[in-house]
Structure of histidine kinase:
Amino acid sequence: MKLFSKKSISLTLIFITTLLLSISTYFAFLKYLRYQPIEATLHKREIFNHGNQLLKSLEEERLKSTLYLIEPNQNNLTLLNQQRKEVNLQLKKNEAFNLKQEINALLTIRKEVDLLSPNYTRLLFNAFHSEIIKPIYSKMEALKLFHDNNSEIQLIKLRTNINMENSFLAFVLKHKISMADEDILFWEKILSLRQMPTFTSIEDETLLTSIENIYNTRHFSKVGEKERVEIFIATKSEKYPFSFEQWYHNAQQQKSKINHIQKLLSNIHGNYLKNRFLEYKGEMYRYIIIALLILILLALLSAILRILNKIDKDQRMLKNTVKEIEVDLDENKKREIKEILTHNSSVEVYEFLANEIKEPSRAKDLFLANMSHEIRTPLNGIIGFTKELKVTKLSEEQTEIVDIIEESSDNLMHIVNDILDFSKIKAGKIILEHILFNPIEKFEASIDTYVAKAREKEIELKIYIDPEIPVKLFGDPTKITQILTNLISNAVKFTPQKGMININIRRVITQTQTEDKNVELFFSVEDSGIGISHKEKKEIFNAFSQADASTSRKYGGTGLGLSIASQFIKYMGGKLDIESQLGKGAKFFFTLKLEKPNNLSPRSINNLSAYTIGYIPPLNQQHIDKNLQFYSEYLQAKFLTYTPRELLNLEVSNLPDLLFIDYKCFDHEGEIEYFLDLPLKIVLIVADNREQELLNIRGKLDKILHKPVNFTRSIKSLEILTETEKKSTQKKEKVTQKFTAVEALVAEDNFINQKLIKSVLQRLGLNVTVVSNGVEALASRKEKKYDIIFMDIQMPIMGGVEATEQILSFEINSQQKHVPIVALTANALQGDREKYLAKGMDAYLPKPMNLDELKEVLANFIN
């Protein structure tokens, strides 16, 4: 009943709060409807003020233009240009008016003023007023500000009219010329357009009094009448009683009063708008804040209601659970639970239930541990005798059966070991070692145990172990390697054929690393396997758990590996985590802190800054191993990547000191032959056991590096650079000394083949001339002496066979010594050798050229 009462009160409060929220939101919206038009009007007020400033600048430019036309001297031109800059600045501020047509008209007038146009009346009065100033009036009036705006427009028009009269009289008074009848009529037209502001729309008496003190309508309208009469009388004699400057001074006093009144009206209107704007804005924000506070209160009340419902639900579930369990309890337990229920304490009930649940779980763990120990004894016997049996004389069928027994026994032993580790974890009997070990050595050894299994599935295994990891660390190497092998085993198991696994172990650099006694290491194992869904990630680290039931059937295993790895990492102060998407592989990662020993010596490495390392990567970009570059640069060597053709095109002086060749970089078998006689050291990278395949070239290689490329193998391969000179130097001496001062002509139409053949021959010490067809070959043979000619069979203009016949004819007719001609063709068909030898050629080489065959040809023909 109490709970029901509390829920009723909560629902009532929620209803009231919701009502208040609706009311405050409604008032906030009303205030916004009043605030928004004021904001828009305030913006229009700002645009209007900019327009007024633009008109002032334009009126001043018209006067300056007039003075320049009267006296086109440098001083007037400077003043005019300054005023034009001011107008341009004001035009940029008035983009809201869209003054494209007015700007074009202004530019036209400026051009005519610059040309000193004589038709000043049309230019400065008619055009300037009708095409520029008048349209701007219209756009300012179209803003439709408050009614006080009419008085401001009247004042602006009056000021413009006075400025127009000033500009007109400047011509008369400055030149001291008489006015023609049309000038007088134009003057009268200007005066007829002059309208005095009435200020009838202003209701504020105080404001009207202030304006009257500045501006008396009757007096203001008569200002200048006397001077105008005197100008009119003197126009015939051209002897005016005063100068333009005197007239302009009086006019400026009038304009000053107009500007003062106009500014007064503008400020009053602007302040009124700003005050209203701030007032409505403040009221709107107040209602919004009230609405937000009510919304927070509503959220709190809703949360309280949910909590009350949950408490009610939990109590009902607890009572039902106790009733279900009570059936299976003995009499003592029944009495215990009844007593607990009388205390009305949920905590005591939960403790009782937890103990009842733990007891069978502990019994299960004990049973698993005992069973595992019992199984290990006979299993060890099976494994031992199987090994003994393998060394006896067995038939092929018997050997296969023994292998199956051995593999099955090993798998079963792994399962038993997992169960034992799991039972130790559950019992809290895990003891961590704290011994000194070589981390890189240990990590690489644990990874190498799975290289063979990865090769069976043609998985590309890539390993990066940070060389900045200290040489020695304190920790538990056994459990760390067990963690790694569990993760790698999983990766190999779930990665499909020809997939990829990336293993990354690196030092985490922190700001306090120099002072901290610990070193933080980051471990990750990433595969391109089946992946794990978001839902399955939550269960993946639980004991006996796999992604789903089909996973266990398809891939085998107990599902303990990740659970054990996760618990070991947790014991060592880390956390195993996962990033994965279903069907896109998975990445398992964690960090551990290991202690550095005192007086730790740095890693001893060779400085290879004086050496260049070359690398020819595999054709498949997926198989490129960038770790080789990291390790080379760690030893400060320069690292460069080449294609096979790029390397062969290099001059001898530009060759790297050491070349790593990935065996998968060639399209065809035998192409590696081109590189074996280069004057450099060569390391061949292979992914599997190719001893038989590499038997013929093994002696020409400085080293074979078996994948995966790890830190230790890379360093050992790089160390051959610092060894005493070996066969690379001997090869260089042999190649460069054997065929020196030999002139060779190569006739080949394909540009790439030209480069390749030239590069190979130059490495053998020959001087090479290249031509593109048989005609050029014949001409070159006639002009220069050669020791040997390499002739492509199929070429444009003249083929190799015809060119050979022409060269032989030339040699006979000119009684010159015969130069050996070697046929080159990509179509290595049976009978080609005999056919081309019959045509007069001396030797035959199929493309691509075999280096041994090429050297044999050169040895035969060159002394």
Notes: The two ends are 118 Å apart (CA to CA). DSSP finds 29 helices and 17 strands in the chain. The CA atoms of residues 142 and 198 lie 21 Å apart.
